[in-house]
Amino acid sequence: MKNVTDSFLYLGHWPSAGSFGFNTDILATNPINLSVVLGVLIFFGKGVLSDLLDNRKQRILNTIRNSEELRGGAIEQLEKARARLRKVEIEAEQFRVNGYSDIEQEKLNLINSTYKTLEQLENYKNETIHFEQQRAINQVRQRIFQQALQGALGTLNSCLNNELHLRTISANIGMFGAMKEITD
């Protein structure tokens, strides 16, 4: 420290018209040089440094502003996507509910159609049975009638002789003659 103060004291003793020289004392010249360099840098570099810092500040503010705008746009797009998702979920739920009700309706229609078909088949079966019963009854009647007729013819043939036969024919001819006179 003593060297620093000594160097300042020696400055006062220099003759004004003296020679110019270099001070080789490093400890004495460094603070002076540093203060001069720092003074020059502060004086001339203050504006440049201020401009650099202002430019950097503006870029940071612009980046923040752009980020905020992008964030706002992203939030808006997110809200739109959420709204579309809710809408699609509601539509999907409606389709699911409607699909289930359509399936239930189709199921009921199929059951009703099956019952109607079964009723028709039951009716056809009953009609077929009734028809077959009537046909069987008619066949039995025809056979009974044929057998009765054959039995009656057999009885008539065994009981009828020629004379009775001629009398029956004459009576029938008389009836036809009387009918002819009535119609004329």
Q: How would you describe this protein?
A:
The chain has 184 residues and is an all-alpha fold. The protein has a domain at 33-132. It has three helices and no strands. It starts with a helix and ends with a helix. It is found in: Membrane; Plastid, Chloroplast thylakoid membrane. GO terms for molecular function: proton-transporting ATP synthase activity, rotational mechanism. Pfam families: ATP-synt_B.
What are the main properties of this structure?
single chain; 184 residues; mainly alpha; 3 helices; 91% helix
* Mean residue pLDDT: 82
Give the strand content.
under 5%
Give the end-to-end Cα distance, rounded to a whole number of Å: 182 Å
Major sheet description: none
GO molecular function: proton-transporting ATP synthase activity, rotational mechanism
Coiled coil: 71-98
Transmembrane segments: 32-49
Subcellular location: Membrane; Plastid, Chloroplast thylakoid membrane
Helices and strands, with pairings:
Layout: H1 2-13, H2 26-159, H3 162-183
Question: Summed up, what is this model?
Answer:
By secondary structure, the protein is mainly alpha-helical. The protein has helices at residues 2-13, 26-159, 162-183. The model is unreliable at 7-17 (pLDDT under 50).
